[in-house]
Structure formats: C-alpha cells, structure tokens
Amino acid sequence: MRLLARCATGLLAVSLLMVPAPLAVAKHADDTRSVLPAGRSVQQEVRFATYNASLNRSSAGELVRDLSTPGNAQARAIAEVLQINRPDVVLLNEFDYVPGGRAADLFDQNYLSVGQNGKAPLDYPYVYTAPSNTGVPSGQDLNNDGSVGGADDALGFGAFEGQYGMVIYSRYPIVTESVRTFRTFLWKDMPGALLPDNPATDTPDDWYSANELDALPLSSKSHWDVPVSVGGKTVHVLASHPTPPVFDGVEDRNGRRNSDEIRFWSDYVTGGRDASYIYDDAGTVGGLQRGERFVVMGDQNSDPLDGDSLDGSIDQLLGNKLVQDPLPSSDGATEASAFQGGANADHRSDARFDTADFEDRSAGNIRADYVLPSRTLRVAGAGVFWPRAGMPGSELTGIFPFPTSDHRLVFVDVTLHGSRER
User: 195, 208 in Cβ contact below 8 A?
Assistant: First the structure.
C-alpha cells in the first residue's frame, strides 16, 4: 500500500513499511476563510464536526454502488445535513472503507459537491481515509463460541474488511507526511489494560489466549492523528470510533475494549511518560508534545452517566486537564427524550446533550458523539444538529426508521490566529 497525496500539480507516492497505509487526497488549492481584525493577525474561525452517518452497508461493494449515482436518498440527506451545518473539518463514522478512497471520492463528487434541496454545495479539497480493523479475519475464536470466522471473530466487528470505517473531509490542508495511525497497536501493550476475564476459570484476565492477544489490536477500527494546517497553525484531528460496549457477555469484552480505546486518546494527548507505551503503525513511539493543538472527534459510544459503557469511560477524556468540553446541545434532543419516554425517563444525564436516538425500551437516547478541543484552542460556539419536530431540518433527523442516521451531527467552532494560507 502507498500513502498518496494527489494535488493539482501531480501525484506524489510515498512507500510505507510494515502495514497497509492510509490514503490522503489533496485535490486543489485551499479556500481558507479568514477575518482580519483591527490588529495585524488573521483570525480564523474553524468548525470541527463529527457525524456517525450510518453510511455502512451489509456487503462489500454496496456503498460504491449506492454512491456511484447522485440518487441515493440516504446519501442525499446526509449531504444536506452537512451542507446546512457547513463544517470545515468533518469526521464521518460508519462510512465503509474502500481501497483507493473510491467511496469517499464518490460521496464528495455526487453528493457533497451537489447542492441538496437548494443548499449550497460543499467543497472539500482534502480527504483522508485509511484501512479499518473491522471485518479483518483474526484467525482466532475471539468470542469463544467454539468456531473461528465471521464478524465477531474479526479484529474489529464487521462482516467484511472496512465495514463501519471512517473518512475525514477538510477545507484545510492535511499535513500528509505527519499523519499517524494506530491500527496495529496491540491491546495487551497498554499498561493496565482492562483485559476481559473468563468467568469459567480461576485465572484472571484470561478470556483471550496468549495467541489471541498477540493478534488483537486495541482499536476496533483505527485511531488516527491527522494534522490539519489552518493559517500556519497545526491542529491535530484525533479520530476514532470505539466499539459499542454491548453485544457480549458477562466478561464485558466490548465494554472493556471501549473504555481502553477512549483512554488511549487521554494518554496520547497527555504525552510524556503517560504515552511512552504508545507506538504507531510506522513504529514511532510516544504521544503529542505538550502545548499542541488538538481536537478529539468521533462516536465514542459512551455517555457520562447512562448507557452500557463502563463507569467512568468517557470521563477519562472529559476529566483530562488538557481537554475542554464545550457541551454541545440541542432543543430537539430534549424534546425527543420527553416524547419517546421509555428508558429515557430514568436517565441521569441532561437530555439536551444527547447525540444518538437509540431504542427507547432498554437503551434510550444518550450522548455518544464528541468534539473535544484542547485547552490551547478558543471555543467560539458548539451545537448538535437535532431540530425540534416541525422545525427546518427536522425531516432530516426524524424518527425511526431514520432518513439519515440514528446519530446527530455534533460541531464545535474554534478561533485560531495566524497567517493567511494561500
């Protein structure tokens, strides 16, 4: 595999060692928005967003087929949500990975670049996507059901390689040569890892055999550090999608993995000794340097108080002193919780912060999706796209079966000072 940067002047290919490499695309010059205040510095407001778009399909090739023409209803609705909110940098979770970035390109060309229902098109010169652990055969019986094979025995749950993948679209240049991915980092190599225990034995933390632990990565999809250059300033987009903490047994293997996938970013941004155990797919060790600007983005599958994740899982990020939580909210989430009732009535978290509309009898709506800037960034605004019923855009969120996704787009606006990029 190769790391590719495609630009207006030609094609640059850089070979990488050891592991399949990501794909980053720069299609043409940046169109950076800026405001010149009274002083000499340029002030730029940048909208970072995350959106679990549910653009996953049941078999390989289906997403490319659906996106090859501009007529797919779900893709059009997803694009319209993006065109309404107009993020400058957006992470889409549950977007099947296709080698060569084919699906990502098709969604850009046939949907984002085409105005939906009178909305202005979006122009993203830079696109980043990379392989995912989902659907990659492990060759091991990871769920201990006595057989090997299938979605539950893959390195990350998936019916085919790349299902439930990720993609980043950006109006700002991606610093391709500095991207780090952590798809092969082994779970067992995290100090104090919450490895699951087989309750049928007296040996602790033994759900997985030694051979299985030698093959099992921490990340159920991948963890990406994708630096973006904004007005001469670098912001590290830290993208991931930890496994849902459900669909397992009393060993809670998915809940424990979810918690450690979240902890990974907390250790990474803390850096120093806390991140000394971390190695990326190219073998480079360590985390971020102190003072770096970053935004942690993605569907973390963990609510501070409700849902099935381990207690304190998301607090590992929310409580990190280097991270700020702008608490994006919406009136639509509050309305939906009250209207749908069920499990929502017993939730402890404030419903206005919910980002996902889950089944009401047992799960209820929760806060699952996060955009968490570093304290080195100034927050100018934040929100969740969840309009109240009958308001403009509510037809795009809706109720089950959803026209878009059971998740809502979450955004945070930050202000940077720097020079105008050309």
Answer: yes
Spatial CB neighbours of 65, under 8 Å, sequence gap ≥ 6: none
Query: Residue written as tokens 């912001």?
Result: 235
Q: Which of 205, 209, 207, 219 is nearest to 155 (CA)?
A: 219
> Structure pTM?
0.91
Q: What is the per-residue pLDDT across 27-79, written as a single tens digit (0 to 9) for each?
A: 433 333 333 344 445 789 999 999 999 999 999 999 999 999 999 999 999 99
* Residue 290: φ, ψ to 5°: -60, 135
Q: For residue 135, is it left (φ>0), alpha (ψ between -120 and 50) or beta?
A: left
How far is 257 from 253, CA to CA, in rounded Å?
Answer: 6
Virtual torsion, Cα 138, 143, 148, 153, nearest 10 deg? -40
Give the sign of the dihedral formed by CA 417, CA 269, CA 367, CA 234.
Answer: positive
State pLDDT tens for residues 144-182. 999 999 999 999 999 999 999 999 999 999 999 999 999
The residues, ordered by sequence, that sit 6+ positions from 76 with a Cβ below 8 Å of its Cβ are 70, 111, 116
Select from 191, 326, 321 the least CA-distant residue to 264: 191
Distance CA 181, CA 112 (A): 26
